[in-house]
Amino acid sequence: MIKKSRISVYLLMSFLLFLTVSGTYVNNSLALDISESSSYYDAIADTLFEQEPTNPTQILRYRMLAENPNLMEDQQSVKQSVILAEEDVGNPKSFYIIESFLVSPYTYVLEPATMLAKGANCYIYVLDDVIDSYGESSATSKAVLWKNEFENKIYPNDILYFGSPDGNLGDIDGDAHVTVLLASFDGGVAGYFDMRNEVDTFNSNKREMVYVDYLATYGVLAHEFQHLIHYNYDVNERWWLDEGCAEYAKFLSGYDVSDNLTAFARDYFAHYPDDSLLYWNYMSEGGRDVRIDYGSAYTFIFYLAEKYGINAIKNLVSQTSVGAGSIEDALSTVGVTIDFNDLFLNWATALYVDDTSFGGGLFGFDNLDMSMDYDLVTTYPVTKVNRLNRYYGIYAAKLDSPLDKMMLETASTSGKYLGISIAIHDLSGWTVEKSVQIGSITEFINGTIIDEAYLITSVMDASTPYVSANAQFTVGTAYEVDYSLAAGEPLFVDSHTFSYDGGSWDFSLTNVVISDENDTEITDGSGVEVYAQFRYEGSSIVYESISMNYSIPLDWYLELSLQSFDEDNYDLYVIASSTSQYGRELIDAITIAHLLTVDEPEVSLNEDSTGLYVNVNASYTQIGGWETFTANVQTMILLYDKNGDTVDSFTIDYNDVTNEWGIGYVDLSTVEGEHFVKVSFRYADRTVRSPESVHFIAEGEPTSDPNTGFLDFSPWFIVIIAMFAISMPIILKKHKK
After folding, report:
1. Could you tell me if residue 66 is inside a domain?
2. Are residues 333 and 311 in contact, defined by beta-carbon separation less than 8 angstroms?
3. Which of 219, 221, 211 is nearest to 186 (CA)?
4. Out of 218, 298, 301, 492, which residue is the most buried by the measure of CB atoms under 10 Å away?
5. Is residue 332 part of a domain?
6. Given CA atoms 243, 247, 248, 252 in this order, what sign does their dihedral have?
7. Which of 569, 592, 615 is the last residue of a domain?
């Protein structure tokens, strides 16, 4: 019996050795990656501490990421279950808290505190040192005031607009109460949220909680509570959105605002509108700092809430997509389809025009009155040189009593798009025209007794902008744009003939007659250039402008194939312009669709019917797009049983050398019976599947779990087997003795 037990022990030790060796190998590789990421996140936290030490919430975010580099990618597994009992007034409790905000990295200390007030949704704890300083009676009265503000205003308003403090991650302590710890902070810190408390780790209080300075305003608690809520839905949200929501939380409860404006919006953003909305300028570049960013982000969230309602903001917080894309996603959930560029221009225009009586109310605020800085223009013609335009910042010129008919021309913007909003106020009231174009741009200002107008511009991307989490700490790229305004006269499109065959992509626009305000027809000798302009449908973004030709029988005309155009819906305009004339007219809408065709796969079995060769072929009709298509398409061979249920899937790649997908191999060793395959192509958010192949009979050997084969272990298993084979005779020989 003893010999058998010892042999069993040796076997177990050998197996454990295998697991240990192989596990060490994997963990060492992982440790290398984590170490590199940790250093990077620590460096960001160090820089943020140097630039803006009074905002520990975001510094703590990066310290936490340094310890858990995969936290953003693995958000759903962050929470642990740490069920705690409900606590009562008078309860003593020690909390991990940052010792000083003047030293980085922060040091945590465990400090005693006492609960002095309790509400249906909160515990108000006060550090014992603070109680000693102010007296128990005074501290208790103060705690009750904090409790009342939280229960009556902050909690109901924040959860109404931003969601539950448990978010998608769940309640870490099994207690619905939010802990508010009143303390005394150095370094000018008024309060903070530490995501560490949401994770079962060292120096964690393992509860939903925020820290507030005993002498801070209630707005600090509203602000930090929003951070707690936002984190529990989206660890990785960009700062301008997270901080914008946190500032808006102050407004919701009436804290730290005057005429609904925060000091940052009124005293900083209003005077520096060129600061990029999408970046968080902790580096204080270009004379700018984060106080401007707080103000711009606040007004943007204010605009979203006013125009699209509570659910738009709540859905924005709960989206795990980030930045501008998350705003588009959130608005789509409330039935609003708008690209971010248009939304940005609407917001920027509303800051200056501030009139909700036209345009569906999109160009003004109901409850906000901003007084924004602008470039004043009073004489015409005029040229403005090197006007500062930051990437998704705002440049604005106010035109005082401009001419009723004027030409606006801008120079090219270094390969970037320029978003333009022209707001005109005349006898008919306000009108707004927007566009997003690239290159040299011409627009026309036309009104009847115009008393004022605004020219608002911003450097943009062609589509939804994306700023990575680690690139957001700057002021935004600066561009210098030249503008000229001169007298002009309107041109009109009197007639046209339009034809488009979506099956062949043949497009023609002929017999376009252009005339001036005196009904004089414009020919190619008139010094006027005529373009067919394609804009994304319902958007201000110009996809392409193509010069038209002129002939006597066809007038202005254009004939071409649209097969090389991107697949989308477009609005077709005719644009006519000269040095003193300009006109634009919407002609029609066009839907351009390209054909992705996947052929029926050809199949052949190997000799023992345990393997299948699949011949894959597809065609894509967009000219010039084949190389991009083959490089980015996701191709799968899908294996089905006779009932049409998916059994397995196999990837297959395009061969650039042979210029074909060739033959894919499907392993049938673990399936038997009647089967068939399809081929799936996914490209540009479209998935097209082939018809099913001819049916075939597989003769493999099914297994209940084909992925548990013991011999599929790593090469370390072979090493252990060899060690075991060598050692066993020695072990047995010793036992015989």
Report:
1. no
2. yes
3. 211
4. 298
5. no
6. positive
7. 592
Domain count, the chain: 5
Listed in sequence order, the residues at least 6 apart from 690 whose beta carbon sits closer than 8 Å to its beta carbon are: 598, 599, 600, 601, 618, 678, 679, 680
At a CB cut-off of 8 Å and minimum separation 6, what does 568 contact? Answer: 536, 537, 543, 592
64 within domain boundaries: no
Spatial separation of the C-alpha atoms in residues 545 and 308, rounded to whole Å: 33
DSSP label of 285: G
Cis peptide before 105 (omega within 30 of 0): yes
pLDDT in tens, 614-672: 999 888 877 667 788 888 888 989 999 888 888 888 888 888 888 888 788 888 888 88
Helix (H) or strand (E) holding 390: strand 382-390
Higher pLDDT, 142 or 5: 142
d(CA 350, CA 361): 9
* pTM score: 0.76
CA trace torsion 517, 523, 527, 531 (10° rounding): 90
Q: Residue 545's domain spans which residues?
A: 494-592
Give pLDDT tens digits for 61-116: 888 888 877 665 555 555 655 677 789 999 999 999 999 999 988 999 999 999 99
Q: Are residues 243 and 263 in the same domain?
A: yes
Residue 329 counted as domain residue: no
Q: How far apart are CA 588 and CA 504, in angstroms?
A: 18
Predicted confidence band of residue 704 (pLDDT cuts 50, 70, 90): low
Of 558, 573, 592, the position where a domain reaches its end is 592
| The pLDDT value given to residue 726 | 56
Residue 468, number of CB atoms within 10 A of its CB:
9
